[in-house]
């Protein structure tokens, strides 16, 4: 048995009342798999980390509010503020 984040390629489904932040990581229009995607709260505190799937997808279950999503990859880094609401909030991070 292993302990790991859920498969990031599966379709997103938020349970009633749940908040889900999902998105993709890309560079020059191509997905970036294997990037480390981190979730930070409104104060900048690290909250969670997942590895983007081979198709560049990621997801976090979070509380409604303001979050910052950060991406770390040998191909570049990115960060984006996200305001998550109940349901699914989608974002795209483009590496620069």
From TrEMBL:
Any one of the GO BP annotations: carbohydrate metabolic process
One Pfam family in the UniProt entry: DUF1416
Superkingdom, natural source: Bacteria
Protein name (Swiss-Prot/TrEMBL): Uncharacterized protein DUF1416
């Amino acid at each position: 048995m292993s302990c790991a984040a859920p498969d990031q390629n599966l379709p997103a489904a938020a349970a009633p009342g749940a908040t889900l932040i999902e998105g993709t990581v890309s560079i020059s229009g191509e997905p970036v798999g294997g990037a480390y995607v981190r979730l930070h709260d409104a104060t900048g505190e690290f909250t969670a980390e997942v590895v983007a799937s081979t198709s560049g997808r990621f997801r976090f279950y979070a509380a409604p509010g303001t979050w910052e999503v950060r991406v770390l990859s040998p191909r570049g880094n990115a960060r984006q503020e996200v305001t998550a609401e109940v349901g699914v909030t989608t974002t795209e991070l483009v590496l620069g």
